[in-house]
Amino acid sequence: MGGENMERKKLLLLNPIEYEHNFDKRALKTLEGTPGLEKLVKKAHKHGIERKIRLSYTGSNIKVTPNNFPDIYDIFEEACANIFLRDLPELYMQWDYNVNAFAVGSQKPIIILNSGAVDLLSNDELLYLIGHEAGHVKSGHMLYHDMATVLPFLGDILGSVTLGIGSLVSSGVELALLYWRRMSELTADRAGLLACQDKNVAFSTLMKMGGVPQTYFDKMKPDDFVKQAEDFKDFNFSSMDKIGKTILISMSTHPWTVLRTSELIKWLSTGQYDEIIEKHGKDSLEELEITCPKCSRKLSGEETFCGVCGSKVWKR
What we know:
By secondary structure, this protein is mainly alpha-helical. The chain is 54% helix and 5% strand. It has 15 helices and four strands. The protein has a four-stranded mixed β-sheet with strand order 1-2-4-3. The longest helix has 25 residues, at 172-196.
């Protein structure tokens, strides 16, 4: 890992609603209106799916702590602090040379880093990657992420005999769940950028995730990659039909890296990223102007709920 350093800000009282991607929001609304989802979640709780997933990772992989791999833990702590994730997940490493990471568990979240990511990313790039996964936790994505992880296997392995979800696997709930999972990555990419606070770091991380060989790391041309992403900007998810979305979710666990970069570029161009850094990058809570993240009403900082729209808000 490299040793880049730059002055980054802890984004105090950052609320994920402020950077949530519209594709994520719309896909979640569709998912929550899909028949069968509630039944699936109840069955998962009843049979302890999260506990089984957690045991499979914590029993096989290496835990990262302040004493065990402290350099990695410092990056992890900074990523969480920068996006104001106060309840830290546990952090583990697994042997896998894909440049990637993932998070599991809604009640007791854990983040798992692939060893390839630790070896092949710089410190700043690792900050982006961990910030991305911490963003999933911060946004409350983990329950449905876990469902998306196990659903394709439950139909084949357990079927309707034990969980009673055999019919759900072949229904619209699987498509809606997996499609939302891909769209949630676009929100998490924004969290990763807010954690590392350097667009070029985000782009280089996505390039390495996209397949650049290690021997060519020093020859990467991020400007060309950005141009490729900008050329992709006319791609329209909203107009995709069911077949197109099925193909999309069957090809990868994440949206395409060029598309993800294109969406980050679009977001940067709106000025919302700069507004968030300016608004939340203060030295203390007392300096923050507290507003409702949903309706933008100015608040005193003592409220629990917004008096206009009723949304729960941060208190000083």
